[in-house]
Amino acid sequence: MILLNLETKLLTSEHLSALLELDQACFGGLWTMEGYLRELDSPNSDLLGLFSPVSNSRLLGMGCFWSILEEAHITILAVHPQYQRQGLGQALLYSLIKAASDRGLERATLEVRASNLGAIYLYQKFGFQTAGRRRGYYQDNGEDALVLWLPDLQHPKFLATLDQWYSIVSDRLGKSSWQLLFN
Question: In the annotation, is 94 catalytic?
């Protein structure tokens, strides 16, 4: 079986139109161009893209976290609908958590729609636990958000956990003919 390469890269302003296109495909226009420009310009924001040379270097997915004190607050995680259910979301989440750990952050947190069971399952698979609920958090429909939490990113045992997750992600991607490369 031939494996297709995937790589994560820090996004820059040259990726802005691809970001807006992916946002539109996944969320119907959740963030504005100005919002993405703020993320790209902020030293406290890591905005990662998932690319494959076989897709004309198209942006297949994106993830972002803010560094707030010792916390990585994951603000967005999206995979183009055409590439969902192939392990790319796992690859992006792994890459975000690894980047946060490499940056010296202690923990990761995020909000997720209480109805988004697929995303909740993904986050729980990577050790996130429910820390609370924000009632009426989502403005579009008043839905609650679950607050999820992943502690101990700097604990010595966490490096072994990252290695295990890399194996899990690699195995899942391989079943869909992908392999994750790191720069």
Answer: no
Per-residue pLDDT at 29: 83
Closest CA to 6 of 63, 70, 43, 50: 50
Q: How far apart are CA 143 and CA 20, in angstroms?
A: 24
The rounded distance, in Å, linking the Cα atoms of 105 and 175 is 32
- Structural domains in the chain, CATH included, are 4-106+152-181 (3.40.630.30)
pLDDT tens for each residue of 52-69: 877 665 889 999 999 999
The one catalytic residue among 21, 111, 137, 143? 111
How far is Cα 79 from Cα 97, in angstroms, rounded to an integer? 16
Dist CA 65 CA 67 (whole Å)? 7
Q: Which helix (H) or strand (E) holds 156?
A: helix 156-175
70 is known as an active-site residue:
no
Which residue in 123, 138, 143, 166 is the catalytic one?
123
How far is the C-alpha of 147 from the C-alpha of 109, rounded, in Å?
7
pLDDT in tens, 2-50: 677 888 899 999 989 999 999 999 988 888 899 899 999 999 999 999 9
